[in-house]
């Protein structure tokens, strides 16, 4: 019998956390498969995971270190459930909230569902409701859901905040790209492509901000900036080649300008001036923002655009 739920866990040197992660999934009363993809770990993570694989609790795959995006893509290639979720190896789920979100999602006609997370930092739990309260409990057309979340400043790109129908992922043929900032690209496009998105307030996941996670390690700042700029360029390519609602279009412009402004600030703060910006892209983004009838989005877009230009002008 095929599993109803596929849980994909990319793993890299997570020997301190992987047991907690896998064990948190045990209480789920769902026919599931747990796919762990080892991304060339340099510690004992693989050996620990292999013990879970030996008793059939997980399916374990290994690849040379290629980054979280390629690990997730391998999991997507091997999964067979009707619903797909992603869990990071140093995080864990909240069983009751996860079960509730799954039940609400599968009873709906949505292709994608959004839930809430807790952020755990230095043993302090901070509850974060990722969606604006008036959006909860409704089905939204995908691009309008994106626009409303952006408008209320409650859009989150973090992929573990969501559940996806496998048939939807097969339809849009979406793949993870880049080694960092990959969620910004994936989640923005996924939401804009979804026919319907269910917004819930089910608190289903604990995000652990550890100093030894990939986002907490000493990754080159220029590498971070390169990935931000690549994501901005890819989102712009998507914008040019797809028809979105007016609100979704202007908010996607805002997001691209925001991501690009982060990249440029990192470059200039580090006296790195060999990056390449497309003048045509930014002229087009500004034009789209200025033509929008959404005055609030226009204000936000122009703010990010001004921030970008001011950063560039600061170079002496």
UniProtKB/TrEMBL annotation:
The residue ranges of the Glycosyltransferase 2-like domain are 6-123
Look up keyword NADP and say if it applies. Answer: no
Q: Which GO terms describe its molecular function?
A: hexosyltransferase activity
Pfam families (alphabetical): Glycos_transf_2
**Which keywords does this chain's UniProt record carry?**
Glycosyltransferase, Transferase
Leader peptide range in chain numbering: none
Q: Which InterPro entries match?
A: Glyco_trans_2-like (IPR001173), Nucleotide-diphossugar_trans (IPR029044)
Q: Does the keyword Protease apply?
A: no
Which PANTHER family does this chain map to? GLYCOSYLTRANSFERASE, GLYCOSYLTRANSFERASE EPSH-RELATED
Under what name is this protein listed? Glycosyltransferase
Question: What is the originating organism of this protein?
Answer: Sodaliphilus pleomorphus
């Amino acid at each position: 019998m095929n599993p109803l739920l596929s849980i994909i866990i990319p793993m890299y040197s997570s020997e301190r956390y992987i047991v907690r992660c896998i064990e948190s999934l045990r209480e789920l009363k769902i026919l599931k498969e747990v796919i762990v993809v080892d991304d060339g770990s340099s510690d004992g993570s693989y050996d620990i995971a292999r013990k879970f694989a030996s008793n059939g609790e997980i399916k374990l795959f290994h690849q040379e270190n290629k980054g979280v995006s390629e690990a997730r893509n391998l999991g997507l290639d091997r999964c067979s459930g009707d619903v797909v979720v992603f869990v990071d190896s140093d995080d864990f789920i909240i069983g009751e909230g996860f079960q509730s979100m799954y039940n609400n999602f599968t009873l709906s006609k949505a292709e994608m569902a959004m839930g809430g997370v807790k952020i755990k930092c230095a043993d302090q739990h901070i509850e974060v409701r990722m969606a604006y309260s008036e959006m909860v409990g409704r089905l939204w057309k995908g691009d309008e859901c994106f626009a409303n979340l952006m408008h209320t400043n409650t859009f989150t790109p973090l992929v573990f905040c969501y559940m996806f129908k496998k048939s939807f992922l097969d339809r849009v043929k979406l793949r993870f790209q880049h080694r960092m900032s990959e969620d910004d690209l994936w989640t923005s496009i996924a939401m804009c492509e979804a026919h319907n998105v269910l917004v819930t307030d089910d608190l289903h996941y604990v995000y652990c901000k550890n100093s030894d996670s990939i986002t907490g390690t000493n990754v080159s700042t220029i590498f971070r900036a390169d990935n931000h700029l690549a994501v901005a360029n890819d989102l712009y390519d998507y914008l040019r080649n797809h028809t979105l609602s007016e609100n979704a279009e202007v908010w996607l412009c805002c997001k691209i300008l925001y991501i690009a402004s982060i990249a440029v600030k990192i470059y200039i703060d580090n006296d790195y001036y060999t990056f390449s910006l497309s003048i045509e892209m930014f002229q087009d983004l500004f034009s789209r923002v200025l033509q929008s009838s959404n005055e609030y989005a226009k204000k936000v877009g122009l703010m990010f655009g001004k921030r970008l230009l001011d950063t560039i002008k600061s170079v002496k």
